[in-house]
Design a protein that fits this description.
Strand 6 and strand 7 form a beta hairpin. By secondary structure, the chain is an alpha/beta fold. 47% of the residues lie in helices and 17% in strands. Helix 6 (159-168) packs across helix 7. The protein is built from 12 helices and 12 strands. The protein has a single domain (2-308), classed as Luciferase-like domain (TIM Barrel), CATH 3.20.20.30.
Amino acid sequence: MYGVSVEAGSAPECVGLIQQAENAGVGAAWTNMGAAGPVDMMPVLAAAGAQTERIMLGNAIVHTWSRQPAVFAEEALAIEQLAPGRYRLGIGPSTAFFVERMYGASYTKPLTNLREYLTTVRALVNEGSVKFKGEHVSLRWRLLGEPTPLPVMASALRPKSYSLCGELADGAISWMSPLKYLSEVALPALEEGAKKAERETPPLVAHVPVAVTTDRDDAFNRAREQVGYYAEVPNYQGMFAMAGYDVSGGYTDEMLEDLVVWGTEDEVVEKLQRWTAGGMSEVIASTLYGADREESIASVFSAVARASK
């Protein structure tokens, strides 16, 4: 499947973009925290679910520290009821930079945090109840009514998080990771975790920055301007190093060639399909905006819809 990442300045605009994606023939719309400006994404996706018919919906991602597991489960089930069979919850511990500044929490043992959230949220949506006591989560909770199973996916960056997703999650969601890294490092770690748990390997969903432009320098400059700050985040620096790229001075052209999908619409379609050929189960196209934001979005939506067909 090929989907798009939706970003907007308000809840109505976000819902409108998801409707636009569905009308264009896009298979899935994903939203990150902040994708609807200052408002929370969960009720926005509920509204989108009620106002669309076919498009798959997903969070990629919501920070674990922002909610208790029971709240995650109840909100996710509400969206599932409004969009039956079309919603996927994505959660993740984020990074110390965000957690300590946004929530005032101590960013300790993030993998343990994710393990406990995956265990308890998945138990609630699949079984309807949970009794659990851990380092980050202590919960005795039962949902009213019958449980409604839905996919609970998680963000992953380094091999240990991919292994954890292979063991426990219904899918792993990447961000700002080159194809070489995902194919040669992340996917084997995901498979190793699944083998350890004696289960099938879950999907690996790759976030990919996309620009429909024939100007290579323009595409790479958009990436440096719009998502270049990840080169300064220690977690991501380590991932880039494992992929064989030194980003201490910022993104290199070599790294961006392995990360950014750009070109004519036909070339973008072909390059997106290379990612699934490289082992990705699904690709999320994240628009790199040019001078005309609306045109940038429409052209990426069109390319993704064509790739899906």
